[in-house]
Amino acid sequence: MFPCLSKTLLGVDCLGCGFQRALLLLFQGEFKAAFLMYPAIFSSLLFLIFLGLYFLDQARNYKKALWILGIINAFLMIGGYAFKHWFYII
Q: Which string of DSSP letters, residue by residue, matches 32-47?
């Protein structure tokens, strides 16, 4: 896996930390574990699919969908980060 540049240089997790591990869990069929590892995994994948469609299919307008998915994804990323670092106690 690729190392996180933010964690390597600064010692702080970024908003995307856990995405690679969650993606591997998703490929293995561990949907719940992937969500628990990185809560924004499904919205991130949906955003990336629409981003690919935006570049591949120029005939349709995906800008509104990209904005909506981007905002939802940002909230889920920030919420997951906050939950993982400040509210999750084990």
A: HHHHHH-TTHHHHHHH
> What tokens does 20 get?
């690679």
Q: What is the pLDDT of residues 44-83, one digit of tens each?
A: 999 999 999 988 988 888 889 899 999 999 999 998 888 8
pTM attached to this predicted model: 0.76
- Written as one string, the DSSP assignment of the chain is -PPPHHHHHHS---TTTTHHHHHHHHHTT-HHHHHHH-TTHHHHHHHHHHHHHHHH-TTS--HHHHHHHHHHHHHHHHHHHHIIIII---
